[in-house]
């Protein structure tokens, strides 16, 4: 950028002599760059103190989402995913934020409510069978559900988000 | 007779009937009119011909040609007058905060301020939309159990009680929009290479809130705050836990009312590339950025 500006400064008088060429003062490109100005005379001190830099690092955000640490109790009710995932017919992976991937999908101007369970691995049909059996106790009407084996999600008609989360937490998933 | 006519007549013999459905005009019998431009063949689009309808010179909304208009006919109380100018404090519940702590998104071994909450990426703040910081709400006050040094911008009495009952410390502090803009995305702020701004004092209508020890305001007397802690404990009926001696240093860590980031003085320029801090030496600048 600085080079281009210098080029502009050199070429400008030549161009102005030849043809009618004007500086566009309204354009930001017309103003000089900071590096082209005279040397800064403001006195300043450069500090490389690691103790001070610690405070800078404290203010900066983490670049990755931290892994949850094992604690005795979790007062908020959130539970980490169990490590015993072997010998299970199905498995539901947590999201990047370590939450259960169960969502409420509201559409048709708030009329249609679907429960969406994502990230299902393994025997999705068995999971659907067990889940519907569990949810059926709370529902008067037969539960309608749709299994998408390829994408690994289940769509259930109605709002069963909390019940599904409870079911999964009970299964330690 | 020509071959074509013969063909046509022979076809006629086999056709069950000649009717309007199976005859058509002779070619060139109909002359097409001009092709009008635009959607409906270049007509007036429902606006008609001549007058105020064609010119679309409508009256302003609510105007009733000289009558006392309906919207002015009855007296009213302007409940929401000036709502667009008021300071907004987007909420974060104690349950949310506890969940952030449980999922290791917030480090409790350090004081928690707005920068910490914003750095989780799970709480959004828009200073240009008159957002002035976080409001801690009382949802989950019963389960809250974290010994933290917390700084928020607005907190109710119940929230203060919940934090102090758990053995923590809470402060309410004001940040002006320029400071907030620096806090929203600290990395991009440091990359801009501009000095850390000096935090402004709260506006006249907020001074009272932030200098009230009952609200744990950052401008109030610390001795009066410790008095108020006892008063609140008696009001809500819990014994005020003694501050944990192992984390006492963290619990006592405070920011200057002119400071935005812990440990960083206003006027400093942070260079992330070379990992150095530039500090002004000019007397004028020192005075401008004084704490």
TrEMBL record, chain A:
Location of this chain's protein in the cell: Mitochondrion
One Gene Ontology cellular component annotation held by this UniProt entry: mitochondrial large ribosomal subunit
GO molecular function annotation: structural constituent of ribosome
Gene3D superfamilies linked: SUI1-like domain
UniProt keyword Transport, yes or no: no
KW Aminoacyl-tRNA synthetase (keyword) present: no
GO BP, sorted A to Z: translation
Keywords: Mitochondrion, Ribonucleoprotein, Ribosomal protein
Family to which this protein belongs: Belongs to the mitochondrion-specific ribosomal protein mL49 family.
Name this polypeptide is given: Large ribosomal subunit protein mL49
Provenance organism: Psylliodes chrysocephalus
From TrEMBL, chain B:
Composition bias type Basic residues, residue spans: 29-38
The keyword Ribosomal protein appears for this protein: yes
Key word Ribosomal protein present: yes
Pfam short name (any one): Ribosomal_L27A
GO biological process: translation
Disordered, as annotated region: 25-54
GO annotations of cellular component type: mitochondrial large ribosomal subunit
UniProt keyword list: Ribonucleoprotein, Ribosomal protein
Domain Large ribosomal subunit protein uL15/eL18: 91-171
One MF term in the entry's GO annotations: structural constituent of ribosome
Alphabetized HAMAP family for the sequence: Ribosomal_uL15
Record family assignment: Belongs to the universal ribosomal protein uL15 family.
Protein name from the UniProt record: Large ribosomal subunit protein uL15m
Record organism: Psylliodes chrysocephalus
Lineage of source species: Eukaryota, Metazoa, Ecdysozoa, Arthropoda, Hexapoda
């Amino acid at each position: 950028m600085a080079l281009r500006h210098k080029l502009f400064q050199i070429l400008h008088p030549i161009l102005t002599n030849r043809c009618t060429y004007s500086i566009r003062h309204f354009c930001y490109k017309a103003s000089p760059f900071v590096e082209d100005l005279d040397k800064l005379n403001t006195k300043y001190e450069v500090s490389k103190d690691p103790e001070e830099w610690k405070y800078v690092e404290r203010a900066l955000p983490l670049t990755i989402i931290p892994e949850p640490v094992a604690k005795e109790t979790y007062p908020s009710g959130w539970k980490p995913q169990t490590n015993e995932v072997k010998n299970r017919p199905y498995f539901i992976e947590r999201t990047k934020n370590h939450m259960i991937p169960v969502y409420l999908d509201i559409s048709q101007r708030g009329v249609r409510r679907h429960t969406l369970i994502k990230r299902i691995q393994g025997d999705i049909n068995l999971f659907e069978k067990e889940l519907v059996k569990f949810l059926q106790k709370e529902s008067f009407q037969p539960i309608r559900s749709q299994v998408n084996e390829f994408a690994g999600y289940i769509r259930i008609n109605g709002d069963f988000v909390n019940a599904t989360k409870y079911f999964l937490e009970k299964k330690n998933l | 007779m020509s071959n074509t006519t013969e063909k046509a007549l022979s076809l006629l013999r086999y056709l069950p009937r000649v009717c309007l459905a199976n005859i058509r005009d002779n070619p060139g019998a109909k002359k097409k009119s001009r092709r009008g431009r635009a959607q409906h063949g270049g007509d007036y689009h429902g606006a008609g011909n001549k007058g105020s309808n064609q010119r679309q010179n409508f009256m302003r909304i609510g105007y009733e040609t000289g009558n006392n208009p309906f919207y002015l006919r009855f007296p009213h109380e302007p409940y929401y007058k000036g709502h667009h100018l008021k300071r907004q404090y987007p909420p974060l519940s104690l349950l949310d905060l506890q969940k952030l702590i449980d999922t290791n998104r917030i480090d409790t071994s350090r004081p928690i301020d707005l920068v910490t909450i914003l750095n989780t990426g799970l709480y959004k703040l828009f200073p240009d939309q008159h957002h002035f910081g976080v409001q801690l709400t009382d949802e989950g006050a019963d389960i809250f159990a974290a010994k933290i040094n917390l700084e928020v911008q607005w907190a109710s009495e119940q929230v203060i009680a919940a934090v102090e009952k758990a053995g923590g410390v809470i402060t309410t502090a004001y940040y002006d929009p320029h400071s907030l803009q620096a806090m929203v995305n600290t990395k991009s702020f440091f990359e801009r290479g501009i000095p850390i701004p000096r935090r402004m004092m709260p506006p006249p209508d907020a001074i009272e809130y932030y200098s009230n020890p009952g609200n744990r305001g950052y401008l109030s007397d610390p001795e009066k705050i410790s008095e108020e802690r006892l008063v609140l404990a008696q009001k809500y009926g819990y014994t005020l836990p003694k501050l944990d001696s192992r984390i006492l240093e963290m619990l006592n860590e405070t920011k200057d009312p002119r400071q935005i980031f812990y440990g960083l003085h206003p006027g400093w320029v942070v260079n992330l590339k070379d990992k150095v801090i530039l500090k002004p030496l000019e007397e004028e600048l020192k005075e401008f950025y004084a704490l």
